[in-house]
Automatic annotation (TrEMBL):
Belongs to the NAD(P)-dependent epimerase/dehydratase family. dTDP-glucose dehydratase subfamily. Its cofactor is NAD(+). Pfam families: GDP_Man_Dehyd. The lineage of its organism: Bacteria, Pseudomonadati, Pseudomonadota, Gammaproteobacteria, Nevskiales. Its EC number is 4.2.1.46. GO terms for biological process: nucleotide-sugar metabolic process. GO terms for molecular function: dTDP-glucose 4,6-dehydratase activity. PANTHER family: DTDP-D-GLUCOSE 4,6-DEHYDRATASE-RELATED (PTHR43000). It comes from Hydrocarboniphaga daqingensis. This is dTDP-glucose 4,6-dehydratase. Keywords: Lyase, NAD. It catalyses: dTDP-alpha-D-glucose = dTDP-4-dehydro-6-deoxy-alpha-D-glucose + H2O. InterPro entries: dTDP_Gluc_deHydtase, NAD(P)-bd_dom, NAD(P)-bd_dom_sf. NCBIfam families: dTDP_gluc_dehyt. Residues 4-322 form the NAD(P)-binding domain.
């Protein structure tokens, strides 16, 4: 039995692959274009396992994707490849539409052709699992109820609009062609191997370097945080037990204001790495993200009641483990701090003025 995982060298995809290789006997085929966000080192021990293959390929390359399906004859594909950073989507939206919408379309077509040619029972057992985000539902006020699977889509950023586009394609491929799809919409992940353009790893590395901790706007925006290993477990459960055509929300039951997250990080760093502290002095309020969604919150009752999933990690212990991982893994950190990364920091932060 074989699984294909796209975006496997990224933050969440690599966690899924590491878990699958460590805990199952299946062959796992990692597909990744190795953009700035992809790093084969993130695959850890899975890289050298006989149960793992790596295919350096772009999901928009239809002949290549067809060849990969033909060669490996997968029982399912978990599709995580995407451009994933909201701020980058504001600076350059075209790449987001290209990978997230056109790339997903390409994969759906390839998977559909492959699925139609499968004999039973492999045909009815095949799954196309699409990994999406809570951001497609838009922004909540402080008192709004959390997003449910039936909440109307209201994407606000080029990133979330492109993810919404891909979600709609997946839905249509199930409805029109009968492709056995599964979809999950998850809240903010955090944990090891997180690329340091995102809030938590950026703050950890800046703090260790004694650099400013740039909090957008008033710091009161709320996100729901889920430890990445819990997300990977949810994805594996949905793959095995989810009903084709259904979508499942995944969340961490850990809503926090951004400033609370940064505060907690500073406290943990003061304890684990006092030599770069005290860290709170580095907190700097800067110009807000354009169109910044105020609050996300996830209702994951469906996943809990139908499939029995709950997050196992709590936010404070998960955050502590995450900080410790960054302290223990300077080689990985060094490997992602390329010239491209430094250029991005310059582009995203140099123009932001410091609030009084
Ligand atoms: P990431 O940016 O860390 O990794 C994305 C991976 O996709 C990288 O390895 C990159 O090289 C690869 N990739 C990009 N374009 C590609 C292409 N054209 N062909 C092949 N590979 C390509 O992203 P992530 O945080 O791991 O997110 C994975 C998925 O989960 C995304 O679809 C994202 O929208 C979704 N998601 C992320 C979060 C989160 O908090 N990070 C939350 C909910 C959903
Ligand atoms: O909700 C799920 C989404 O979470 C995923 O779909 C995205 O792929 C993922 O990137 C993430 O999106 P966010 O925009 O919420 O994550 P980010 O880490 O970029 O920002 C988290 C919050 O922190 C957000 O309110 C913006 C704020 N922020 C971010 C950065 C990078 C800052 O205040 N300062 C910063 O420097």
């Amino acid at each position: 039995m074989t699984l294909i995982v796209t975006g496997a060298a990224g933050f969440i995809g690599s966690c899924v692959v590491r878990q699958l290789v460590a805990e199952t006997d299946e062959l796992v085929v990692s597909v990744d274009a190795l953009t700035y966000a992809g790093n084969p080192l993130s695959l850890g021990d899975a890289q050298a396992s006989p149960k793992h293959r790596f295919e350096h390929a772009d999901i928009r390359d239809q002949p290549r994707m067809q060849a990969i399906f033909e060669q490996y004859q997968p029982r399912a594909i978990l599709h995580l490849a995407a451009e994933s950073h909201v701020d980058r989507s504001i600076h350059g939206p075209a790449e987001f539409v290209s990978t997230n919408v056109v790339g997903t379309l390409t994969l759906l077509q390839v998977a559909l052709d492959y699925w139609r040619g499968l004999p039973e029972p492999r045909r009815s057992q095949f799954r196309f699992q699409h990994i999406s985000t809570d951001e497609v539902f838009g922004s909540l006020s402080a008192t709004d109820p959390a997003f449910e699977e039936t909440t109307a889509y209201q994407p606000n950023s080029p990133y979330s609009a492109s993810k919404a586009g891909s979600d709609h394609l997946v839905r249509a491929w199930h409805h029109t062609y009968g492709l056995p799809t599964l979809m999950t919409n998850c809240s903010n992940n955090y944990g090891p191997y997180h690329f340091p353009e995102k809030l938590i790893p950026l703050m950890i590395l800046n703090a260790l370097d004694g650099k400013p901790l740039p909090v957008y706007g008033d710091g009161q925006n709320v996100r729901d945080w889920l430890y990445v290993e819990d997300h990977a477990r949810a994805l594996r459960l949905v793959l095995e037990k989810g009903r084709p055509g259904e979508t499942y929300n995944v969340g961490g039951a850990a809503e926090r204001k951004n400033i609370e997250v940064v505060d907690t990080l500073c406290n943990i760093l003061d304890e684990l790495h006092p030599q770069s502290g005290p860290h709170h002095r580095l907190i700097t309020y800067v110009t807000d993200r354009p169109g910044h969604d105020r609050r996300y919150a996830i209702n994951f009752t469906k996943l809990e009641s139908e499939l029995g999933w709950r997050p196992q990690e709590n936010f404070e212990t998960g955050l502590r483990k995450t900080v410790q991982w960054y302290l223990d893994n300077p080689e990985w950190v060094q490997s992602v701090r390329s010239g491209e990364y430094r250029n991005w920091l310059e582009m995203n932060y140099a123009g932001r003025t410091q609030a009084a």
